Amino acid sequence: MKPRFLVLAHCLFFLGWLLAAGCSQKVTAPEPLALDQVSSSLATAFQGAKVELQTLASAAAGAVDTQRYDQALLALQSLSTQSGLSPEQRDIAARAMLTVNQELAAQATTGNQAAQQTLQQRRMDK
């Protein structure tokens, strides 16, 4: 009876230790990129990636460069859902998307209809 109890006690202790160790990790939200760093960051992160990923990253960068943030957001959303992204690529895509969202919000407050429609559509899609 005692050996079973000791085994069970050890298992419960080990399980509790695993849970405590896993819960102690801090997860922070990614920081947006500076607007002037989006294109170069995307180019660097997706250099040597699959052609499809490079195409989406290039489309997003081009849209940011021409201040077409509605198109940039669509390209970044598509890019971020692709399988096979490295952690660095996923991080850069997420940070670029945050930056583009900030720019869209700023444009929407100044009356830009395309920005307002894009943000409204995004809210409806959630």
Short key terms for the protein model shown above:
126 residues, 74% helix, mainly alpha, globular
SSE order and pairing:
Layout lengths: L1 H22 L14 H8 L5 H15 L3 H12 L6 H23 L3 H13 L1
Provide structural commentary.
It is a single chain. The chain has 126 residues and is an all-alpha fold. It has one domain (35-125). Helices cover 74% and strands 0% of the residues. The protein is built from six helices and no strands. Helix 2 runs antiparallel to helix 3 (51-65) and helix 3 runs antiparallel to helix 4 (69-80). The longest helix is centred in the C-terminal third of the chain and has 23 residues, at 87-109. The radius of gyration is 22 Å and the shape is globular. The relative contact order is 0.12.
Structural class by secondary-structure content: mainly alpha
User: H/E order of the elements?
Assistant: HHHHHH
* Uncertain residue segments: none
The helix tally amounts to 6
Distance between the termini: 55 Å
Q: What count of domains describes the coordinates?
A: 1
- Compute the CA-based radius of gyration: 22 Å
The largest sheet is: none
Share of helix, binned: over 70%
DSSP strand content = under 5%
Dominant shape: globular
The quaternary structure here is single chain
Please provide a brief summary of the model.
With 126 residues, the chain is an all-alpha fold. It has one domain (35-125). 74% of the residues lie in helices and 0% in strands.
